[in-house]
Task: structure prediction
Amino acid sequence: MNRFLTLLLCASSAFALPTMIRLGYPNCVSCHVTPQGGGLLNLYGKGIDLAQSLRGGEYQPNEGRLSILTFGSRVEQDVRGVYSSQLTTTTGGPLLDINRGRFFYRNVTNLGKGFRVSAMINGETDPTVRRTKVYDPALRPGLVLVSSAMLQYRPREGMEFGVGRDVLPQGLIIPDQTTFIKARNRFGYYDVPTQAKAFFWGKRWMAAPFAFAPSGREPRLARESGAGFVAEADILGHGKTVVGFNGLRGSDRLGVRNLSGVYTRLGFGAWGILAEHDITDRRFHLATRDVRFAQQATYFQGFRYLREWLITSVIAERLTVGNPYPEHLWAFKGEVSARMSNKWTVGLRAGAQRDFRSGAITPVATVQLAMKTVQ
Result:
């Protein structure tokens, strides 16, 4: 049995928080500069971010002190730092200590007339890549990665177009990159293909078609091209009952994959539910024949806010992969997160993953301290 104990001192995730559904925010447009979310907050979003912390109060821009960095409010930027120390051991084996450092720099520059450029640069001392599969080799990102570099154009409210490198539009935009719905569907931390995408939205709906091609950082055999679509709607009209569909088709020299999934974000005041189920049909090229098999990934999170700044969650995940590469995994986690201010967050996580084929159980414990700058 493998045993893991992890201590993390790290920055708040670069991704949006879908738990905002409980307050009647059906998508990311209200608070984030980009409609996909996961980037810098706009002025309204910064106010909401501060209000949801223990510190509270009204957000005051740092324009007077940092005006030289904003170039007349045309530039928005922040910096986030990460340090992690991981202790790993196996029954009867040695204790291993792995230390990692990571930083994020994010920038959005408004060019005027609806145009802007955005970028995110990540650096780390020891990249953490997903486990390589025969049909899905891991990407080796190097010590510095430009994870986003986009030119975006918003001709009017409710419509935006973008080209460049970024994470693809997806169903649930959750911070944890190790979840099956992200790591096994190439939506992970390092999966940032070149793409063209569009966002269309109204009060009760959003749609995002996209096409993508390799960024050039992927393994040569896994340089995938394709297209996809994400669409969602607030079915009851109060901003708290979103149901959506995500799908894509991609092909590379290893084969073809077709992903289709459904997801939901539900909010009920102090608590809510996030859930997604994805089915991926794969055709893998072997030397003498093609092999076709299916993969299913399920994610469920129930959360409750004990205070505006204190959230608890229970999470369950399931992954199954068909022959000839069979897998059957379950994961269970419990989380508590306290936002002490809009710059500092403390989190605790404990859980376990079980492999039903081998019977192995892997427990995990995490302590997280998150820090970010706020301009």
Remarks:
- Helices lie at 43-51, 63-70, 180-183.
- Residues 2-371 form a domain with the Porin fold (CATH 2.40.160.10).
- Confidence is low (pLDDT under 50) at residues 1-15.
- The radius of gyration is 21 Å.
